[in-house]
Amino acid sequence: MTLENSIRLLAGMLILLSVTLGYFVSPCWLFLTAFVGFNLVQSSFTKFCPAEMIFVRLFFDRKAN
User: Fold this and answer.
1) d(Cα 63, Cα 12) in Å, to the nearest integer?
2) 52 close to 9: Cβ distance less than 8 angstroms
3) Which of 47, 65, 46 is nearest to 56 (CA)?
4) Could you tell me if 33 and 22 are in contact, meaning their C-beta atoms sit under 8 angstroms apart?
C-alpha cells in the first residue's frame, strides 16, 4: 500500500468512526470529523500533513522508494 493510500484510509476511517460515535455516543464526536476535514483542506494547500510525517517515520522506509 502506498503512503498516499494509507493516509486516505486513515482519514476515511477516522471520519466513519467519528460519525458513528457522534450518532451513538455524543454529538461532540463530530468535532473530530471537522478536524479531519479541515486537515485535508489545509494539507492540499500547504503540502503539510502531520499524518504523512507520522506514517513515514513509523511504517515507510524512505530509502526503498
Assistant:
1) 28
2) no
3) 65
4) yes
Torsion angle, CA of 7/8/9/11, rounded to 10 degrees?
Answer: 90
Give pLDDT tens digits for 6-62: 999 999 999 999 999 999 999 999 999 999 999 999 999 999 999 999 999 988 776
Nearest Cα to Cα of residue 47 among 7, 2, 1, 10: 7
Which run of H or E residues covers position 17?
Answer: helix 3-24
Ordered by start, the domain boundaries in the chain are 3-64
What does pTM read for this prediction?
A: 0.83
Neighbours of 62 (CB within 10 A): 7
